[in-house]
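## tool: complex_structure
## caller: assistant
## args:
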Amino acid sequence: MAKLPRVFVTRRLPKEILSQLDDHAHVDLWDSDLPPDPDNLLDHVREAEGLLCLLTDRVDKALIQQAKSLRVISNMAVGTDNIDLSFATAQGIPVGNTPGVLTETTADFAFALLMAAARRVVDGDKYVRDGNWKTWGPSVLLGQDVFGKTLGIIGYGAIGRAVARRAQGFSMKVMYNSRSQKDMDEKIGATYAELEDLLEQSDFVSLHVPLTDETRHIISTKELELMKESAILINTARGPVVDQGALVKALGNKNIAMAAVDVTTVEPIDAGNPLLSLPNVIVTPHIASASTRTRRQMTQMAVDNLLAGLHGDVLPHFANPEVST
Ligand code: DGY
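## result:
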């Protein structure tokens, strides 16, 4: 019987899905809820023909160069900024990702953050737990209306559009900024705006761009200064899309009213980070796609991509389709 190819799976994942690999590969599982450190990752990838990794694993040029047998990289995420995609492509290594299945779940969460920040849900919970709820008060925990306000969406791909659809139900005016689309989105009723106009006019700004060289720090001091003092910034994209130092200053100086972020520059954020000392920010631990159904589907897609790569087939979901042509 032919020797099965070795694959490294960098995290504990549902057994009943991972077991689909058993007849096709020798699975080296990092059986932990924490990621391998870079040395461990390299040790295990060195001999592997397939890699099923997460967004917490840095698959850079140096790692790929040392993984001489690697034939497929399957990332259990739609974003691939943890992988040196152009180097993998140059080496002819297909990279799989998990688009589509997390679109609605992530949009739900972006809207949940928007609502939570505007209506002070987190403050309210803390207020009750701290024993401060003495009576119904006319000025207790006043927030901002969402209904009828202006939402600016930066990045108008599938997730950005899914957020725009949710905003329709709140009769919001929706503006978007995108590099690839500039026309009026008649179906959703969203209008294209230049970034500066969007920032100046929006009550809520929600970020939905992938992290690339062009989008790194797309929101920094200048952009935060353009925003309304009452504005709320939502980030469910990637931490480095926002200049976090500039955000801390803008929130501290009340240049903007609030931020609600699911992603930070470094993840996990250090407990002593100045962002966490601010009262006007909500920080969640990169959970926008974290529904039971979606995470199972992401795992299944990652396994399907890995198997296709091992068999030399076209990956069902390619981050670098040019490798197959
Ligand atoms: C992704 O898939 O890129 C998401 O950030 C995971 O939540």
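## assistant note: Residues 55, 77-79, 102, 288-289 surround (2R)-2,3-dihydroxypropanoic acid (CB under 6 Å). The domain at 103-283 is CATH 3.40.50.720 (Rossmann fold). Handing back to user.
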